[in-house]
Design brief:
Distance between the termini: 140 Å
CATH topology of the largest domain: Serine Threonine Protein Phosphatase 5, Tetratricopeptide repeat
Number of strands: 0
Structural class: mainly alpha
Shape: elongated
Helix content: over 70%
Number of domains: 2
Strand content: under 5%
Largest sheet: none
Radius of gyration: 33 Å
Number of helices: 12
Length: 264
Amino acid sequence: MANIFKFIILLLLFSCSANEKEIIIAQGDDKNIFEKGIQLIEEKKFKKSIDQFIKVNDEFPYSKYSSQAQIYNAYLNFELNKPDKTILLLTDYISMNPNGIFTEYAEYLIAMCYYIKVSDPSRDSKFTKIAIEKFKKIIKTNPNSKYAKDAKFKLEYLNNYLARKEFEVGMYYLKNNAPSPAINRFSVVIKDFQGTSIVPQTLYRMYEALEMLKLKDKSDQTYLILKYNFPKSKWTEEITNKKNNIIEDPSYLKKIMNKMISIF
């Protein structure tokens, strides 16, 4: 009986020693797993790399490599065209690390996730508006960062994208002989998207819509706005040429003469 008791004690001691040894070894494994993940990225084996980074977070949540593994995981999902998954991972990271060293990058990558959604025509324009809000936040938070610099370019593209969508709706109405709703859409472009490349053409099309409604004073005013702000635009030239042709038209001159005769 005593011998059996001694055997059990020895077995327990051996088991404890073995477990302690495993724990010591495991403490060095987080680095090995993380570095394996990096190696797999270089080999373009993104899915296998993700598995390594997930393993770091699951098995070593308090490791110094944990936050980096989260960011790499999100980045790889972005590369694999999984924006929704990327957003979830980064949102979780930011909530846990509001002032982390990778937080600014996380904010930028979330904005990029919404940005790439814009290229899908089946997506609702709400994603464009969210992307704009995200990029604006990046610029406001740290205007001199490299992420802010790129965000400015992305904002320019997104604003042009939304402006063109409004313009195209206006053109649909104009082509279908509905100048009033066309003017409403063109007004949105001019009011909300000043500085976008589509504004000169929008003013030109608004001029056309006002002419269709025989609102001469307003069409002339629109022309003057176009001419003042975009004097070298081809759209300004288009209206100028039209006006010059009207003046040079003999029938136009005849109408003017008849009016003068009727006055006297």
